[in-house]
């Protein structure tokens, strides 16, 4: 049978374009050459057509396309332009080609090319299908609407025409290469190596119509306004300012520390910058540091070499020349704008003189990073870590944002005024102004820093408010540019940034006017709605990044960290200032107060748990619940009749640890007769992410714990969970389950579940007349004192593990026996035998059923115990079978018969009750007469 040969992957892609109605043809993927008849070498350049007549042979005929890519399977896909797109007009492409002039140092970035085009057209380039080229350029696909005049043809943007330099038009008679073509590069042709990739949309996405102003600019063939282009500005070096006279030697030293720390932090940011943000970060960091050099507080050689070294550590795809050009662009701008040292010095003086309730940190504010306005009041006391229980604090407090609010706002305005007037530019403004205070987790949504923790509950409202503030601040950016002056005036002052965008006989539009107009435009609902969404990639984090340190817990006034100090085996704790970098999302409901007492709590717990060992266990269990460790692998069941204090104690501890606790329905932990499907949402489990204590309430009579889930939750293995309508993520289990019950649920009988469950008895019942309705409120008022008990309990657990009082051992043992009817049956009615001794499986099962009926050991379902269950449980207990004519249990003997428990009609024999409890009261049965 003949088999069809599939085209290459690129051939398949070419067919898909043809089915859209786009004409394609094969282009060379690398440089090649041959010798002609005259013996001369002819170069065949990469990206040139394979076919003789080039773009004129472009076709949508599938047979021709299959033949081409069978002959040239790696050929790049050339797309002919100028064709009509249904009723949307003719297809054309704007080709943005970023360049760097090595001789002059001039650089054309994508942002500057796009900005120049938008300035010339006085309109925003629409978002449409776009392709990233191997040379880091961008092809933007647009259509020329019908009735818009002469059809566009190929044009190149040069110094001598009205198109921006390095912005070309590809239209009728031209072509572009489309994804997923791969160019292997060309040494002689200069073609860049790499793959063409979709930047926005995919091959089947709609192409947007170009604005009329863009069409008009592309049709016009005249010279650029103003005749010849302005000469390129020669690189200049601004002399370094002397320090102001008001700054003495001591403040000069503080300023130099400030600048050196700023240099270190900017180098860290450069090394950590991700793809897509690397060049912008490098340019911004160079600008900021150069402004400190120009101000005279930083050595130019040290600063420049540090920036260059950091850039080379994270070059991306840039070569050394490109890195140096990006640095030079920011550096020269920074040298022209020295930092105002008077403002920085004033901020430092204010900070050093500010009274503090804690030890003052020696850390200076970050000089190059403005502190975005916090979405909620933040903690001003970034003090040095305190030391308790012999553990010295060695962790830095979080640095501030870089001076007072006025200075920070001015720096942000200055930076943001340089961003593009686009939705993406607004997203960059949002990141610049508020990026420290927001993070986006795809599986959760937004989180906002509220001064103590990353807050999920209030994040959406705070994000919206920050978006509004970002857009309103564009007006300040316009004012800053306007007040800087017109840079084209002969006597323009240094740092002038305004310029004429458009001039008519009746009006002049300045760049500051354009910024101001963009600010008003950005206040529309559509522009506001997309800012946070576009900022998401800049601020993305993973669920696993948060609450990752199991030994840290956020209290109302400190972050408390448990650990073992270096050089000792004695556990201790220390207090740390709140810190964004800890990525904590939770907050307890109590403060740490070393002097706090709790006399009411002590009397209460002493009455309901008079055994000191039991109180020690409860404090160790509560302290263990302060941490995210599950190393003890225990599940606690508090059991006792009502009015015994168990719920009061559990509720008090859960309230104290606040966000770290969670109430969960008992149905999450009981066997409900069906397993979750792999794709089911698990909102009940997802809600437990990052929790430390999970409490659950009374189960129904006859309920049975889900042994598999209990083992999974106490075993430490990550679990895949998801919230409703959200993707799955891996949840690290950090919580311990505490169940309070007046009725004991059933549990499994295997060793794995037995070693995990601990039953804590609450045997004291408080009479009605002695019960205090206000007790819970009184205990909450003593929360800080109770916390001190739990901290000591946690240290005891870290040192010795969870204690096991005799009362808990006995209660747990009884509980396990109650849940093991087969174990009791075997102990009473079966004895070990010789290897050759056997009991028929069906007969032993009948004896068990008779005993269970007599003993009242009914199945929770009310149905008789099945033989399948009986056989499986016997095997779990290590008993083995052999098959001859029937299945028989080997190595055991039956001590009882069916007749010992029920008569011939199946009625219970009451008079056998006493003797049947004694395994030794009967001799071994005759295997031939078990009845």
TrEMBL record:
PROSITE patterns: SF3_HELICASE_1. Signal peptide: none annotated. Residues 358-378 have a biased composition (Low complexity). Residues 613-775 form the SF3 helicase domain. The keyword DNA repair does not apply. InterPro entries: DNA_primase/pol_bifunc_N, Helicase_put_C_phage/plasmid, Helicase_SF3_DNA-vir, ORF904-like_C, P-loop_NTPase, Phage/plasmid_primase_P4_C. This is DNA primase.
């Amino acid at each position: 049978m003949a088999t069809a040969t599939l085209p290459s992957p690129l051939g398949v892609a070419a067919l898909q374009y043809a089915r859209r109605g786009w004409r394609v043809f094969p282009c060379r993927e690398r440089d090649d050459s041959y010798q002609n008849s005259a013996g001369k070498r002819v170069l065949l350049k990469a990206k040139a057509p394979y076919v003789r007549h080039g773009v004129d042979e472009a076709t949508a005929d599938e047979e021709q396309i299959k033949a081409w890519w069978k002959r040239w399977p790696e050929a790049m896909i050339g797309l002919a332009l100028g064709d009509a797109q249904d009723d949307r007009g003719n297809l054309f492409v704007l080709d943005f080609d970023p360049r760097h002039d090595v001789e002059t140092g001039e650089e054309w970035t994508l942002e500057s090319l796009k900005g120049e085009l938008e300035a010339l057209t006085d309109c925003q380039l629409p978002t449409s299908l776009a392709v990233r080229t191997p040379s880091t350029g961008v092809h933007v696909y647009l259509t020329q609407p019908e009735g818009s005049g002469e059809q566009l043809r190929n044009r190149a943007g040069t110094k001598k025409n009205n198109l921006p330099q390095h912005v070309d038009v590809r239209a009728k008679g031209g072509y572009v290469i489309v994804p997923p073509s791969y160019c292997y590069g060309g040494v002689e042709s200069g073609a860049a190596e790499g793959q063409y990739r979709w930047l926005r949309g995919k091959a089947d996405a709609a192409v947007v119509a170009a604005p009329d102003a863009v069409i008009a600019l592309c049709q016009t063939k005249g010279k650029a306004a103003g005749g010849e282009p302005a000469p390129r500005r020669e690189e200049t070096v601004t002399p370094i300012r002397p320090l102001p006279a008001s700054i003495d030697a001591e403040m000069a030293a503080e300023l130099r520390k400030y600048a050196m720390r700023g240099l270190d932090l900017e180098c860290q940011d450069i090394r950590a910058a991700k793809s897509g943000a690397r060049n912008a970060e490098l340019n911004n960091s160079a600008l900021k540091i150069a402004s400190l050099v120009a101000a005279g507080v930083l050595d130019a050689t040290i600063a420049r070499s540090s920036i260059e070294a950091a850039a080379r550590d994270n070059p991306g795809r840039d070569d050394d020349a490109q890195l140096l050009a990006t640095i030079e662009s920011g550096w020269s701008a920074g040298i022209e704008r020295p930092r105002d040292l008077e403002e920085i010095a004033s901020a430092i003086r204010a900070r050093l003189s500010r009274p503090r309730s804690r030890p003052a940190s020696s850390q200076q504010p970050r000089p190059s990073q403005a502190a975005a306005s916090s979405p909620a009041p933040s903690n001003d006391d970034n003090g040095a870590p305190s030391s308790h229980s012999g553990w010295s604090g060695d962790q830095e407090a979080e640095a501030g944002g870089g001076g007072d609010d006025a200075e920070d706002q001015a720096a942000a305005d200055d930076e943001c005024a340089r961003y593009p007037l686009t939705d993406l530019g607004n997203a960059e403004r949002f990141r610049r102004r508020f990026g420290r205070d927001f993070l986006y987790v795809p599986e959760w949504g937004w989180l906002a820093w509220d001064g103590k923790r990353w807050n999920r509950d209030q994040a959406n409202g705070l994000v919206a408010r920050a978006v509004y503030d970002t857009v309103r601040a564009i007006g300040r950016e316009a004012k800053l540019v306007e007040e800087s002056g017109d840079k084209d005036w002969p006597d323009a002052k240094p740092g002038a940034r305004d310029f004429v965008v458009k001039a008519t006989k009746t009006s002049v539009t300045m760049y500051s006017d354009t910024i101001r107009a963009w600010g008003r435009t950005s206040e529309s609902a559509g522009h506001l709605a997309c800012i946070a969404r576009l900022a998401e990639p800049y601020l993305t984090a993973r669920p696993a990044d948060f609450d990752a340190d199991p030994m840290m817990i956020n209290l109302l006034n400190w972050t408390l960290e448990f650990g073992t100090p270096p050089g000792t085996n004695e556990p201790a704790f220390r207090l740390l200032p709140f810190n964004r970098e800890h990525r904590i999302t939770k907050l307890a409901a109590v403060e740490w107060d070393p002097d706090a007492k709790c006399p009411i709590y002590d009397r209460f717990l002493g009455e309901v748990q008079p055994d000191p060992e039991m109180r020690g266990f409860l404090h160790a269990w509560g302290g263990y619940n302060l941490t995210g460790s599950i190393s003890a692998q225990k599940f606690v069941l508090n059991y006792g009749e009502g009015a015994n204090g168990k719920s009061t104690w559990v509720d008090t501890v859960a309230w104290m640890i606040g966000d770290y606790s969670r109430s969960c329905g008992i149905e999450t932990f009981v066997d409900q007769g069906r397993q979750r499907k792999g794709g089911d949402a698990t909102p009940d489990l997802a809600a437990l992410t990052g929790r430390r204590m999970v409490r659950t309430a009374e189960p129904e009579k006859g309920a049975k714990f889900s042994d598999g889930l209990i083992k999974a939750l106490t075993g430490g293995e990550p679990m895949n969970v998801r919230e409703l309508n959200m993707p799955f993520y891996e949840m690290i289990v950090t919580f311990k389950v505490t169940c309070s019950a007046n009725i004991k649920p059933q549990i499994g009988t295997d060793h794995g579940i037995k070693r995990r469950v601990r039953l804590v008895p609450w045997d004291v019942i408080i009479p009605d007349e002695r019960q205090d309705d206000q007790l819970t409120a009184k205990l909450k008022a003593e929360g800080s004192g109770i916390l001190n008990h739990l901290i000591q309990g946690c240290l005891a657990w870290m040192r010795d593990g969870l204690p096991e009082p005799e009362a808990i051992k006995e209660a747990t043992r009884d509980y396990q026996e109650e849940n093991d009817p087969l174990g009791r049956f075997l102990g009473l009615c079966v004895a070990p035998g010789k290897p050759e001794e056997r009991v028929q499986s069906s007969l032993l099962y009948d004896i068990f059923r008779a005993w269970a009926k007599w003993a009242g050991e009914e199945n929770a379902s009310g149905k008789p115990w099945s033989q399948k269950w009986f056989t499986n449980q016997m095997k779990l207990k290590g008993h083995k079978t052999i098959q001859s004519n029937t299945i028989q249990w080997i190595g055991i003997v039956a001590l009882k018969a069916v007749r010992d428990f029920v008569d011939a009609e199946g009625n219970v024999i009451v008079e056998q009750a006493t003797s049947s409890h004694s395994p030794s009261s009967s001799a071994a049965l005759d295997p031939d007469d078990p009845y």
